[in-house]
Every structure is written in C-alpha cells, then in structure tokens.
Amino acid sequence: MCETDGHGEGGADRPDGPDGTGGTADEQAQFSALLEDSAEDLYEHAPCGYLSTLLDGRIAKVNTTLLNWLGYRRDDLLGRKHFSDLLTVGGRIYHETHFAPLLRMQGEISGIALELKAADGSRIPVLITSTVKTGDDGQPLLIRTTLFDARDRRAYETELLRARKEAELERERLQRLATTLQKTLLPPALANVPGLEVSAHYHIASVDQVGGDFYDLFPLAAGTWGLFLGDVCGKGAAAAAVTSLVRYTLRAAAVYDPDPAAALDNLNTVLNHEYNGTDPRFCTVVFGLLTPDHERGGFHITLASGGHPPALLMRADGTTDYLPTPGGQLIGVLPDAHIATTTVHLAPGDTLLLHTDGLTEAHINAGADRYGDDALLDFARSLAPTTASDTIDAIRDLLDTFGTGVDDDTAVLAIHVPRPPAPSEERH
After folding, report:
1. Backbone phi, then psi, for 379, in 5-degree steps?
2. pLDDT tens-digit profile of 127-167?
3. What is the 3-state secondary structure (H, E, C) of the chain?
4. Each residue of 341-394: pLDDT tens digit?
5. Which of 189, 304, 353, 378 could link 261 by a cystine bridge, Cβ 3.0 to 4.6 Å?
6. For the purposes of burial, counting CB atoms within 10 Å of the CB of 168, is it exposed (0-12), middle (13-18) or buried (19 or more)?
7. Which are the contacts of 111, defined by CB distance < 8 A and separation ≥ 6?
8. How far is it, in rounded angstroms, from Cα 57 to Cα 83?
C-alpha cells in the first residue's frame, strides 16, 4: 500500500505555489520566472539609481536606471567622471565640505537631498544614501551609492510651499480687511466736551477676526452729549454688521429722544425685529447722557444699562465703587427689555470708567481663572483719584500683562472732570 505526505497521492513531488500551499500552473510559472530573474538584471533595472565609486570618487559602476535618468552612455561615466561631477555647483560644494567628510568618518550617510545635473543640463532632485565597503582587513575598498528619484517629492514640496505662501497672503489680506472694518466701527475721534477730559482704548484679542465691542461720544442738543459703550455677541462679519447697526441706531435714536432709557428701548426694538429668526443677535450696552452742572460744577450723568457690566466711579477723595444698574436685560432678546437707569453727579476730580467684559473675563496666570469684577474694583481703587488718560494707560498696561489670556476684544472709555486750577496756577 502506497503512503502519502498529506498532499494526496504523489503530493511529495508536486511543487507548492508562492504561499507554500500549491497553485495553478500559471501561478507556478510566474513564480519560476521571478526566481530565474538574474541579480544583474535586478541591479540594472532597479526602480532606483545605483553607482559604485573608488575612494577618490571616480565612477566604477553605474546601473541602467541612473544612466537613463541622466541621459549618459555608460562609457561617458566609467573611469571618466567623479560622482561629484554629476552634482550641481551647490551640490558639489556640499559634497566636498559635508557629505564626503561625514561618509569617511561614519562609513555610511543616508537620506541626503541633492540635485543631479543631467547631460541636457536639467536638474534631477534625488535622495542619496552611501556606504563604504571594506575588505576583510577592515580597509575601505569602494563606495556604494543608492539614489532615489525625488522629482515627485520636490514637486509636492514646491506646491506645498506655494499653497502656504498663498495662504499667508490671504491671511494678511483678511487681517487688513478685519483691521479696516474694525476702524469703521469706532469713531475716528471722540467729541471734545468742554470741561471734560476723555480717553478711550480698544484692545484687539485677535487680528484675524472683527470684534463686536463699540463705543462713542457725540454732541446732542446744545449743552448735552451722549455716550455709549457695548458688546455685540459673536465675532466676524456678522457681528460687525450688528455693531454697525447698533452704533448708528443709537446715534439716531438719541437725536430723536436723548433720554438714555428711550434710546436703548429703540435699539431693542430694532434688534429684536431684525434678528428674531434662527440667528438671533443681541448686545449688552450702557448709554449715558451728559449735562454740565452749572450750579455745583462738573456734570450730571444719567446712565441706562441693558445687561452691561456696571460703570466704575472713582471719586476725587479716592473712594471707588461700581454704579448700581441692577436688572437691566440684554438688548435684542425680548420684545420689551427691562432697562436699568441711574444718575450721578461727576464732580471736579472724579473719573467715570466704562468697560466691556473682555477685561474682567480675561484669563490670568495662564490658567482657567478669570480676572473678575472684584479684582478690577481693587485695581481702580489703587488708581483713585486719577484722570481719564492715566486710567486708560493703566488698563492698557494691565491688559498687556494678561498676554494671550485676553481672548475677547475689550473696549474702555473714561471721562474725567479736571479740578479747577489753583489761584497760583491761574497767575502763571
């Protein structure tokens, strides 16, 4: 009885396929053809370039692939040219000053990007790996070099650099557009109010986006001035459109009726009517009416607030506190928003500060902690008594200390009633 080895009868004499499990006649023929492929043919027609040089760099052997890349005949190179002769001028300098010395020291160097100069003068970017072959005695005999065609990679890198440059130019254009648009949303100059010193500052959190903060100070009827400061929700072009609408609506409303509560009520109606769909828009804002107080000196101020942080009053005697405007609701959310009002006498030496919440919500110490209302109050108390310009300068320095912790635009507006000059100063 005849025994088998598990392949069935006669299985021991049947050749396996490439995976060792047997195969069709075509698969076996293909596999045999691979085995019969000569080492010389693999060398000559490899998907990369090969060359061997003597220690002085003269080319001793080169494969057909590299010859085809360069457009040379074999006799043009063997014993006639050095490896460095195939490189561009910059490549030859690098080869002599870096590549060759490192190769002698290390015996191998890999992944070096150089350019070959073809017979027709064109350039071929390649990645080069070279190793030094040594004899049995450890002495170097020749240098073997493998070259990979990097033209596709160079084209990809060039395209990537071009795309990056275009992106940078586009970002610069957007930044210029954002900066220009931001400037149009702020008054080019604040009105000159006799008897008042006024100063303002706008801190931009990101040059890439237009913020929604705004402020203004402008004349109304004879002897009165209006001011406002606020913050529209969101950023970008949509917020800028709302900011523009808010600013011009408030100016127009104040001319029609300068009462601060009436101006904010008018703005609430406009915003609620224009943005009551799927993309509601709203803002916080404080509006003030300034009237000179001829009897006591200084100014009488009426403030109306729609959900805005309270103003800070820094008195001439150094006392400082927030002005209460409790219960004021966001402008634009409800058809009839509650608007909180307060009145105050700004005496000589007093300073009033209005701000948006980008200041109090700034991150401190590179962490999650916010600066907060209490810290701002302590900061203002350390300044009082002060002037409008000194207050704004101090807040600018404060914002700078937060660095990237200021992630929202910040607007600040300060008004100050200067003290009357002393008799000795008047004589001078």
Report:
1. -65, -45
2. 999 999 998 888 999 999 999 988 877 666 777 777 788 77
3. CCCCCCCCCCHHHCCCCCCCCCCCHHHHHHHHHHHHCCHHHHHHCCCCEEEEECCCCEEEEECHHHHHHHCCCHHHHCCCCEHHHHECHHHHHHHHHHHHHHHHHHCEEEEEEEEEECCCCCEEEEEEEEEEEECCCCCEEEEEEEEEECHHHHHHHHHHHHHHHHHHHHHHHHHHHHHHHHHHCCCCCCCCCCCCEEEEEEECCCCCCCCCEEEEEEECCCCCEEEEEEEECCCHHHHHHHHHHHHHHHHHHHHHCCCHHHHHHHHHHHHHHHCCCCCCCCEEEEEEEEEECCCCCCEEEEEEEECCCCCEEECCCCCEEECCCCCCCCECCCCCCCCEEEEEEECCCCEEEEECHHHHCCECCCCCCECCHHHHHHHHHHHCCCCHHHHHHHHHHHHHHHHHHCCCCEEEEEEECCCCCCHHHHHC
4. 999 999 999 999 999 999 999 988 767 789 999 999 999 999 999 999 999 999
5. 304
6. exposed
7. 127, 128, 129
8. 6
What is the separation of C-alpha 344 from the centre of its chain, rounded to a whole number of angstroms? 43
